[in-house]
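Duplicate of #3305? Posting structure anyway:
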């Protein structure tokens, strides 16, 4: 099975390649750094399925374009699926699969990482008082 993996970061590639090596019949994974949208849907040409993340656009026009390309499945690397038009996927006969849930420990670990990083940001802000103020929303949008 050939799968186009959209919004693929290095950590996605490393993890998926490691898991794929263990498969008796490995998937043919085609990585795209671009997120899925109507403008990038052509990257799925020749693929049986796509693999997307939370910021990928999987609305009715994108699903229709994927269907025309012969894509039969949409796999999500996240528990949320609010970016997918489920009704349109069902009408087109596309399989949609997602992560059923995150482990409570994973959410707690992520929050703990954020907590341990916050003091460093505030210390830097104290050291350099001429820098613009840092808002809570800016801190929560910082990359990991």
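Output from current build:
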């Amino acid at each position: 099975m050939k799968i186009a993996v959209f919004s693929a970061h290095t950590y996605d590639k490393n993890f998926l390649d490691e898991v794929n090596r263990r498969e008796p019949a490995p998937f043919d994974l085609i990585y795209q750094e671009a997120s899925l949208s109507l403008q990038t849907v052509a990257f799925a040409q020749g693929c049986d399925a796509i693999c997307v993340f939370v910021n990928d656009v999987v609305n009715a026009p994108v699903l229709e374009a994927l269907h025309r390309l012969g894509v039969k499945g949409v796999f999500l690397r996240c528990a949320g699926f609010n970016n997918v038009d489920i009704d349109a996927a069902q009408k087109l006969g596309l399989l949609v699969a997602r992560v059923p849930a995150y482990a409570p420990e994973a959410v707690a670990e992520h929050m703990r990482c954020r907590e341990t990083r916050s003091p460093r940001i505030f210390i830097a802000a104290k050291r350099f008082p001429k820098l613009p103020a840092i808002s809570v929303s800016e801190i929560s949008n910082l990359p990991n």
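Confirmed duplicate; merging threads. Residues 86 and 96 are 8 Å apart (CA to CA). Residues 104-140 form one domain.
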